[in-house]
Amino acid sequence: MSSSRNQSAPPPLPMRDGVAPSYLWLPEGQWPDMLSFLVEHYPQISAAQWIDRMARREVVNGDGDVLTPASPYKRGMRIFYYRELEHETPIPFQEEILFQDEHLVVVDKPHFLPMTPGGRFVQETLLTRLKKKLGIAELTPIHRLDRETAGVVIFSRQPASRGAYQSLFQRREIAKEYEALAPRLEGHAFPFTYRSRMVDGDKFFLMREEAGEPNSETIIDVIEQRGDVNLYRLQPHTGRKHQLRVHLASLGIPIVNDVFYPVALPCKEDDMSQPLQLLARAIRFTDPLTGEVRRFASRRQLGV
Questions:
Q1: How do residues 139-150 score in pLDDT, each as one tens digit?
Q2: pTM of the predicted protein model
Q3: What is the rounded CA–CA span in Å between residue 284 and residue 280?
Q4: What's the pLDDT tens digit per position in 249-261?
Q5: Spatial distance between the Cα atoms of 197 and 140, rounded to a whole number of angstroms
């Protein structure tokens, strides 16, 4: 290894505009210089872009030494850089901070806002917005919501207490309550529990059900009728990806504006006119540090 830097030490580049630097361990291989490797490894980024980043002193090794296009390639070295996008679609909806103390930040997330940087979003993500607003470099989500889902989500402010809160989710000691607008369901007495076995679908972003021992469970109840649709209360006892969307679609009542289930529709790109009618309404848990029972609830409403 060319860098003696401790892996747990702060990165050699600071947080910039709410975004922490990305890093990469250089793999086995032979390249004449650093620029040749970067252009081949990241074909979506041009040589001119890398040269510009290096001129700005924003590509460094683990010791903070600035790398140039001619820097030698060294297997096992760790390099740091900032992820940048030439164009990023603005998300015209705002998050709301519901609560914060020295350990947690609880946020009411809008529809369409991604949780963390990835794909075509870096600045327009909840994590980046919060880091810029609060100036907390170590802010980390304890759990996730889909980009399409709105509602309550919890962030950890500091590594020292993060594990105590993460363990609540791992032990399923968090009570979650969701709301969804979906067609009326006949032939069931409410509330009832729906169970199924969920596995990865044929496409990487989808899930599906198959025969076998159930690994997902949701309590489904009706809050009120709204014409041809119901406002449902959903209480998941497990946390499978897309669990609520899959369960309601399997019952023949897909959530209003769901473009994934029961059939994946063509990508809507930047169309934000029809949000998925799914809301993480509330979270309740016993605080592992104080023993206090805490409940946080979204102030958003579906269908308005």
A1: 999 999 999 999
A2: 0.84
A3: 12
A4: 999 999 999 999 9
A5: 30
Q: Report how far apart, in Å, the C-alpha atoms of 149 and of each of 142, 217, 282, 283, 295 are.
A: 16, 19, 13, 15, 19
Q: Which of 287, 276, 291 is nearest to 178 (CA)?
A: 276
Exposure on the CB side of residue 56, measured as CA atoms within 13 A: 10
Tokens of 10: 């702060």
Q: How far apart are CA 242 and CA 277, in angstroms?
A: 13
φ, ψ at 189 (rounded to 5°) = -95, 125
Across the beta sheet with 22-25, the strand order is 22-25, 78-81, 59-61
90 close to 110: Cβ distance less than 8 angstroms: no
| Contact predicate 41/50, CB 8 Å | no
Question: In whole angstroms, what is the distance from residue 260 CA to residue 207 CA?
Answer: 9
Provide the token pair at 250: 């399997």
Catalogue the active-site residues: 146
